[in-house]
Design brief:
Helix content is 70%, strand content 0%. By secondary structure, it is mainly alpha-helical.
């Protein structure tokens, strides 16, 4: 099951930026599919969240192609994700409007949450080249959901895994939109920018909470908040922390990330 989750949890936002530099046939094919999905989402007048949710199966299929390509190329997600963070920081000086700065901060925060969770998963469940080659990539989104539902685990954990997969796919594609805007590859209206900023913030909050609940990410929470928390984290705490997103970027998950980064200094 952990290997199967490598498909939805792998960060395609990093790969999509990488394709700007290399244009081999397979890269061009994947880039065209990314472009197609982006246009379907951007050109629709419906809310972004609804548009993305309606395309989760297609986003999942795209991630399968990305994973196959990444395995073939021995792609280093962690390295290029860090390079992407540096590139975004450099782009910060070009941001002038308040709503664009909020989107930038929420995007940077969300990227750090995804990278922290990915690094934590890889530490707990290292994937060797042999294990990567064994990952079943000829599977649809619906088939993966069925596979999760028949696992001999509690319904609560199944539901959390299903929600994590859904949130990961949505967040990943929302981050692609945000990154392409910050790097001035795409342009959005003020309304879309505000909508995308809130969506990314909410998805990242939920993603981080679910990862903690499933013990895929085990930050030292007690350094950040005084209350005693034991694993697995209850659904009530996840909802409580998700609601903290209304307070902006200076929330509980950001404090965890800042604390972990300070320890590395």
């Amino acid at each position: 099951m952990t290997q199967s989750l490598a498909i939805p949890l792998s960060p395609s936002f990093a790969l999509s930026v990488y394709f700007r530099e290399i244009k081999e046939p397979m890269e061009k094919e994947i880039e065209n599919e990314i472009e197609k999905l982006l246009n379907l989402i951007i050109k629709s007048r419906r809310p972004l969240e609804k548009n993305i949710n309606n395309l989760l199966s297609e986003i999942f299929d795209l991630k399968i192609k990305l994973l196959k390509w990444a395995i073939k190329k021995e792609f280093d997600f962690q390295k290029i994700s860090q390079e992407l963070l540096i590139e975004l920081e450099q782009a910060k000086s070009r941001i002038k409007k308040d709503e664009e700065m909020v989107l930038f901060e929420n995007t940077l925060f969300s990227l750090k949450v995804v990278i922290k969770v990915l690094n934590s998963i890889l530490k707990q469940y290292p994937l060797s080249d042999q294990k990567l080659e064994e990952i079943e990539t000829d599977i649809s989104y619906e088939q993966l959901k069925v596979a999760i539902k028949i696992e001999p685990i509690s319904e609560r954990i199944k539901n959390s895994i299903l929600k994590l997969v859904e949130t990961s796919l949505s967040l990943d594609f929302a981050l692609i939109l945000a990154i392409l805007f910050i790097l001035q590859i795409y342009k959005f209206s003020k309304k879309r920018i505000i909508e995308l900023s809130k969506l990314i913030k909410d998805l990242a909050q939920e993603y981080g909470g679910l990862a903690i609940n499933l013990q895929l990410w085990k930050p030292d929470i007690e350094k950040i908040i005084p209350k005693k928390i034991s694993y697995p984290v209850s659904q009530e705490i996840i909802q409580e922390e998700k609601e903290l997103a209304d307070a902006g970027i200076s929330d509980y998950l950001k404090q965890i990330i800042d604390e972990e980064e300070n320890e590395l200094l």
